[in-house]
Fold this sequence. Notes:
Blueprint: H1 2-9, H2 13-37, H3 39-45, E1 50-56, E2 61-68, E3 71-75, E4 84-88, H4 91-98
Parallel strand pairs: 1-4
Antiparallel strand pairs: 1-2, 2-3
Helix pairs in contact: 2-3
Amino acid sequence: xxxxxxxxxxxxxxxxxxxxxxxxxxxxxxxxxxxxxxxxxxxxxxxxxxxxxxxxxxxxxxxxxxxxxxxxxxxxxxxxxxxxxxxxxxxxxxxxxxx
Length: 99
């Protein structure tokens, strides 16, 4: 985690954009790993089916996650809109929340 913080603090905007894109893409993998390790988390995931859209308005960076039947997967944002939308104004806000 210290290495990621160091990269974020370096102020290299291109690198932080790539880091954020990688984090958004790897989020389903991290959630699936957490579900394998924790039975309570696995049961919690199975409670509801919904779609989440996470995006950064300034960069146009966007990812959608589908939670269905206790599974997590990346998907295309639904045409009618996701049930949950988390839109950040800029990349710095997201990276600060990840610290």
